[in-house]
């Protein structure tokens, strides 16, 4: 599995990377512009990301905007919807408006900070990315 981790907080980004590197190759970035660039390059190189963990609060643009750009890139490159990257929104905000905005932008699920290995495993299993016993 190829994973893109997007979070401006170094501690959260590293924690997510430590957890997810057991499941695949991780590429971690700290802002939305870099994320969109990495996602674009992955499509162009034929090595798309399978999973994107995306913080909602980023310094250059919000995660929902990044998500919309990712989905537009997938559509624009004629990637079938069933082959889209799974997107797990990561947020410190659990309010309904934030969650609904992320879902309508095309995320597959969301997780609140602080997150745990167990919680991330549940989300990965729910999205069909890992099987647990």
Describe the structure in your own words.
It is a single chain. This protein is an alpha/beta fold and 133 residues long. Helix 2 packs parallel to helix 3. The chain has five helices and five strands, in the order E-H-E-H-E-H-E-H-E-H. The relative contact order is 0.17. Strand 4, helix 4 and strand 5 form a beta-alpha-beta unit. The model has no long low-confidence stretch (mean pLDDT 93). It has a five-stranded parallel sheet, sandwiched between helices. It has one domain: Response regulator (Rossmann fold, 3-Layer(aba) Sandwich). The two termini are 19 Å apart. It is 44% helix and 19% strand.
Summarize the structure.
The chain is an alpha/beta fold and 133 residues long. The chain is 44% helix and 19% strand.
C-alpha termini separation: 19 Å
Spatially, the strands of the biggest sheet line up as 2-1-3-4-5
CATH architecture label: 3-Layer(aba) Sandwich
* Percent strand: 15-25%
Give the SSE order as H and E letters: EHEHEHEHEH
Number of domains: 1
The counted number of beta strands is: 5
CATH class: Alpha Beta
Helical proportion?
A: 40-55%
The H-level CATH homologous superfamily, spelled out, is Response regulator
Structural class category: alpha/beta
Write the layout of secondary structure elements.
Layout: E1 2-6, H1 10-20, E2 25-29, H2 32-44, E3 51-55, H3 63-76, E4 86-91, H4 96-105, E5 109-112, H5 117-126
Parallel strand pairs: 1-2, 1-3, 3-4, 4-5
Keywords summarizing the entry:
133 residues; alpha/beta; Rossmann fold; 5-stranded parallel beta sheet; 5 helices; 5 strands; 19% strand
């Amino acid at each position: 599995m190829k994973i893109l981790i997007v979070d401006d907080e170094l501690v959260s980004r590293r924690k997510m990377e430590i957890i997810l590197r057991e499941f695949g190759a991780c590429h971690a970035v700290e802002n939305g512009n870099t994320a969109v660039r990495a996602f674009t390059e992955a499509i162009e190189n034929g090595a798309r990301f399978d999973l994107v963990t995306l913080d909602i609060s980023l310094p250059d643009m919000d995660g929902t905007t990044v998500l919309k750009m990712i989905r537009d890139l997938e559509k624009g490159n004629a990637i079938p919807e069933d082959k889209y990257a799974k997107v797990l929104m990561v947020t410190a905000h659990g309010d309904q408006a934030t969650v609904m905005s992320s879902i309508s932008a095309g995320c597959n699920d969301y997780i609140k900070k602080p997150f745990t290995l167990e919680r991330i495993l549940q989300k990965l299993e729910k999205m069909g990315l890992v099987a647990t016993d």
